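[Meeting: bench + compute handoff]

Bench side (C.D.) handed over the final construct sequence. Compute side (W.E.) agreed to return the predicted structure before the next meeting so the bench team could plan truncations. Sequence as handed over:
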Amino acid sequence: QVQLVESGGGLVQAGGSLRLSCAASGRVFRTYAMGWFRQAPGKAREFVASITWNGGSTNYRDSVKGRFTISRDNANNTVYLQMDTLTPEDTAVYYCARQLYGSTWDSWGQGTQVTVSS
């Protein structure tokens, strides 16, 4: 199983940017698609973005398209989420995870808090 550690969260004003990182252990990291999810207080966890094993294809939820960019560096076992033009609605704990197949994800990290002030 892959161990994931997220970092890069923080407090930012609306319109600002943050770059999240997800560091993975294990050589098998590069063979799996990876994703970012988020969970706001009182709400269910939701999908944010995903990227295939080689970075050749990405997918985003509609509300972040054009603002967020997911990328990966397989040589350094890291997945990134560049978040621009942040809004208060982006406030949440952000998690990365490994895609086993279909809608099944595992190896959740501990999460990193993102807070966007208005």
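W.E. noted at the follow-up: The first strand starts at residue 4 and ends at 7. C.D. will use this when planning the next construct.
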